[in-house]
Amino acid sequence: MINRLIILGNGFDLSHKLKTKYSDFIENYYSQIKDSSWKDDFLEFLIPGYLFNNMNSLKEIMNYMSSRLGEFSIMHPEKNLHINRKPAILLHNHFFYEISRKIESNWVDIEIEYFHNLLKILDQPSTNSIYDDIKKLNQEIDLIAKKFEDYLIDNVNPEISSKYNDKTAHLFEDRLIPDSESIEEFLKEFPESYAKTIRTDLMKKWKDNNNWSKFDETLILNFNYTNTAEELYSDKLKNYKTINIHGSLDDIENPINLGFGDEMHKRYSDIEEKNENEYLRLMKSFAYTNTDNYRELFNFIEDKVFQVHIMGHSCGISDRTLLNAIFENKNCKSIKVFYHNYDKKNTNSQSDNYSEIVRNISRHFNQKTLMRNKIVNKSLSTELPQLKL
User: Fold this and answer.
1) How far apart are CA 302 and CA 300, in angstroms?
2) I need a labelling partner for 13 at 20 to 30 A (CA). Which of 20, 54, 199, 224 fits?
3) What is the pTM of this model?
4) What Pfam families has UniProt attached to this entry (predicted)?
5) What is the signed CA dihedral for 289, 292, 298, 301, rounded to 10 degrees?
């Protein structure tokens, strides 16, 4: 009667205490640099003889070198970024340098930063080097994606099996407590106009068989590169399928996809009109065509009425085209947010991120009336459990 579409984002992995943030990856990278003989595809040091003990960020390394060298220069192969006195660091990946600096002071969405850099190149006064600059940017993103994949394979995948959470497992179960009150509670998550059409059938189903499922089928739409939910909780699901929409680790057929997915952005047409395929290469929609994932998703949402469960996905604009297609689909009757309840010690003025996610969801709707009818209110929503270590 009703299907379920579970949308998983990075917050789901974080709720299992898995270090899957870009900042975790960047911190891990710099922690491996033990001295100034380091050289790789991201950067190299030009002045040997300095030891970097227990340093986990570019800022710490730079402060240490500055205390001993005074002013020094960070060089790019084509240009100087800082014109100071002593050449000390040579950059081979300028974008990685940028996000390393920004992530130390604030949370950074690499995919949005990529899009902003792309637009910056397109808007530069001189058009002579636009193609080369964008090609270089795309190559830098390719390298970061590969290094990030290696990090997840080596450091995160081995940890998943030990992160089972009983409270999270309960969220994947699709059976109702066999009483009429639980059915009424479930129906409150849908617009009353739709609830009326299915109330009688649900009550009959309950009377005929008190051991029944709320959902006929479940599709897990996984935006993460890890496969945490399926590895830990597949035994809680009877009839389900997983789509790793952004790719899977170490999978040639479905490689990880790090790019930008907002074709509704007002500047997207500007990129298309440049008539250069390289400018569009890291747009997510084109990566989706490499597999059957997109078609399978649309077969699911076009087949039958469904409810969306959002677990750990911020619903940011970097995935707007895809999320808009899901949320505004005629078969999407309800969107339930599983929100993060902040630690009481957290100084954040908000106690949870329910409202933040709902505001983000609103950006994916062209028809705002639909949004208000579909989003389950907070009193009926559920906290996303956090694993306690």
Assistant:
1) 6
2) 54
3) 0.92
4) AbiH
5) -150
